[in-house]
Amino acid sequence: MPEGSQPRVPDIVFYSSRSENTLRFVGGLGLPAARIPISPKDAMPAIARPYVLICPTYADGMGQGAVPKQVIRFLNAPTRRARIVGVIASGNRNFGATYALAGRIIATKCNVPLLYRFELAGTPTDIARTRAGLETLGRELCSTEI
Amino acid sequence: MKDMQDIRIPRAINWNRLQDDKDLEVWNRLTVNFWLPEKVPLSNDIPSWATLSAEEQQLTIRVFTGLTLLDTIQNTVGAPSLMPDAVTPHEEAVLTNIAFMEAVHARSYSSIFSTLCSTKEVDEAFRWSEENPHLQAKAKAILETYAPGNDPLKRKIASVFLESFLFYSGFYLPMYWSSRAKLTNTADLIRLIIRDEAVHGYYIGYKFQRGKERLPEGEQQALKDYAFSLLFELYGIECQYTEELYDGIGLSEEVKTFLHYNANKALQNLGFEALFPPEVSEVNPAILAALSPDSENHDFFSGSGSSYVIGKAVATEDEDWDF
Fold first, then answer.
1. Could you give all domains of chain A from N- to C-terminal order, each with its CATH number?
2. Percent of chain A scoring above 90 in pLDDT
3. Which residues form the active site (chain B) (predicted)?
4. Is A76's CB within 8 Å of B317's CB?
5. Nearest CA in chain A to B20
């Protein structure tokens, strides 16, 4: 952890399609965040610290395709995958059993906790809980010296 | 100029040249999600239907005729009215899918009726729906916006409110029954409708945002004002409709909370901030669980603070992710 300062929250990396719901949620957090590009032609964000991934869900009724392709590409790089400490997933409860499914898939694949789930662009309650949760997580990560 | 537009011949649609990737993404989603009411074993609900009181049965039939009316409007007027406004040929194709699925939804309620109810009860409920002032008022408010010559973006606002807000005074009831282990097959069917309407509201809201972002700031603000004032008008009607239906079984206030929650989501589909504060939008967890059953409900930030343990990540390849 940085010398002598109070525990920092983990970095945030997020994906948001052009509907920009996730972007609005991340904006509400008011924390520094790096966006995974929509276009495969654009460069992935550089990862220097532990980070939390915030990811929307695109599953069809059968649960296929839940994790956006660009997020898969991002996580397929071992150096980037090594720094993920948790995942926050969004979705819509109206999709029933596949609500925020991307979070469960990424948590299982990367062996990290599913930290939180929210719908669309989130509510003020979701944003407050996420901020508080990230601060707690920052403290815990310091104590485990990641 | 208008004459030239009238004889415009559509160009052959090329799905390999997309102007907007979202069109193909939503087309794929909608076509994979295609379903018909025959797939749901509604007749398994016959014993459960018999456990409802006469008043509860009448309420349920009325709620479903109200939903049938909204689906009929969206099938025959709403989705078709959006087609001339489409900015890509693929958007037009997606709208044809949306229109047809609304017909499937409207048809589904009749499947429920023919399975569970007598012809006389159903005929009475359809007559009720034609005469109910609140139901007619919401249909009228939406249809006025859909009228030819109206602003294409205002039509999209009305359409998102129908798809993402107006249905929910009705959808509440089958979710409520399902949370009490009643009419669970009917609830399965309604969840298929809810899933479709969520994609429709998302997509039409997305197209609204793309159209709005090309306008000057003043016009954007005017559209936002229009959206909020239409929502207030519809909300007023919905509250009266809700009270008329649900006062008898004492659920009106809980339904209104559900309305607030869904109104906020409708606004988010349009790219706007929520209107109703959290304290009046927190839906009964039993209803939320009925909406998304089998989706695990524990996470780290809401939990009781179990200690954070990081695991060892497994190797990952593209093919591993499609499950």
1. 11-141 (3.40.50.360)
2. 77
3. 109
4. yes
5. A18
